[in-house]
Amino acid sequence: MSNKPNSGDVVKIITESEEFEGVLMPRPDILDEDVTVVKLDSGYNIGISNNKIKKIELVKKYTPKKTVKSKLKITKGLPNVTVLSTGGTISSKVDYRTGGVYADYTAEDFVEMMPELCNVANLKAKKIMSIMSEDMGPKEWIAVAKEVEKEINSGADGVVVSQGTDTLHFTSAALSFLLKDLSKPVVITAAQRSIDRGSSDAFMNLFCAITAAANFNAAEVMTCLHGTTNDDYCLLIRGTKVRKMHTSRRDAFRPINDMPLAKVYENGKIEVVNKNYKEKNNSKTKAADKFQEKTALIQIYPGMDPKIIDFYVEKGYKGIVLAATALGHVPTEKSSSNLLPNIKKAIEKGIPIVIASQTLYGRVHPLVYTNLRKLSIQLGCIFVEDMLPETAYIKLGWVLGNTSKASEVRELMQKNISGEITERSEDKSFLY
Amino acid sequence: MNYQKLGFKCGLEIHQQLEGLKLFCNCSTLNLRDSLPDIVFERRLRAVAGETGEIDLAAKHEMAKLKKYIYEGDSKDCCLVEMDEEPPHPINPDSVDTALQVALMLKAKIVDEIQIMRKTVVDGSNTTGFQRTALIAYNGVIETSKGHVRIPTICLEEEACQKIEEKEGHTKYRLDRLGIPLLEIATDIDIIDGEHAKETAEKLGMILRSTGKVKEVLEQ
Question: Which residues partner with B140 through β-bridges?
Answer without folding.
Answer: B151
